[in-house]
Amino acid sequence: MSSTNIQNTTTSSMDTTVTDYSVTAKTIDEATSDEFVYSNENFTKYLGYYKQIPELKKSVDALAMWAVGKGWTADNRTTNMLNLISGWGEDSIDSIFWNMIVIKKINGGAYAEIIKDDAENLINLKPLNPASTRTVVDSKGIIKRYETYIDGKWKTKKKEDIFHIVNDRVANEIHGTSVVEACQWVIDARNEAMADKRRILHRSTIRIIEVDADDSTRLSTLKTQYAEAIKNGEVLLVPKDNVSFPNVPPISTAEHSEWIRYLENFFYQAVGVPKIILGGSQEFTEASSKIGYLTFEQPYMTEQRLLEQDIFLQLGLTITFNRPVSLKEAVQESEAANTGQV
């Protein structure tokens, strides 16, 4: 007989058995010696994300394109100097600027070798592999020099010989921050969900067949025929009363699709590039498209200003990147004309 005594009740231990979500603590990567070396150890991993995740690649590419794609203006001497730069031989100064912003966002920092003539005039700017480039700082966190890995050895490069730009550097950290670092979880989750859905949809086409399992030869033949039919997209024809095809309902993937869409929208918020910028306009209204376009103006203009300042401070050149067409005035006019809004 069960006990009904109220004094025998107890409580669960959820506070100790189920842990709350918490963020892992981070420390600043700061210099701890007078010869502190920072190597871009995660670059190859982040580069893998960039090259294999289409939404990440196109987002980073789009930001760089909007920042430098409209060209730039400078005085005649600077213009002639920059127009002669060829990078690895097939570059232009525009493609080099685009390359530098892309690598800056992926790796957290981008490097290019500054090549000058005997008169100290800039004659070339050659992008470098971050995996083969490292930064050496002193105990105060000030850059002393760079080192590049060539012919099996680390070779010293003076600070003045490397054009170096960083992304989202905080406090006294001796490197920038990759956009992949903050987006990695949502990228992994979305691609896992997409792979799961693809597998579910693919396998939902496979039917359960009832056969006479006692006849092993007949069963083996039917397995081969059925596999070939699915592989080639053909119809399998069998004699009447030999096999049966039960009605197996397809797997519902509506919630799965909603989860993927949520992660996709979350990704674009995390990376800071509105989806409308990449051309995905079918799910947006005109008003939301304008707002998405307008809010993107500050991010790409910030990239322009930062690159202009780096070029001036490190190359001694003054240039101004052309701004893409702004919708600010158009949005203001639309708002003013909408007298019925609250």
Structural description of this entry:
- The protein contains ten helices and nine strands.
- The chain is extended, with a radius of gyration of 29 Å.
- The protein has helices at residues 14-17, 43-52, 54-68, 76-83, 93-107, 179-203, 216-232, 254-271, 286-315, 328-337, and strands at residues 36-39, 72-73, 109-116, 122-127, 133-137, 143-150, 153-158, 162-166, 320-321.
- Helices cover 44% and strands 13% of the residues.
- The longest helix has 30 residues, at 286-315.
- It is an alpha+beta fold and 342 residues long.
- The protein has a four-stranded antiparallel β-sheet with strand order 1-5-6-7, with no helix packed on it.
Q: What's this entry about, in short?
A:
The chain is built from ten helices and nine strands.
> What would you call the shape?
extended
Largest sheet: 4 strands, antiparallel
List the strand order in the largest sheet.
Answer: 1-5-6-7
Report Rg. 29 Å
Alpha-beta classification: alpha+beta
Portion of residues in beta strands equals: 5-15%
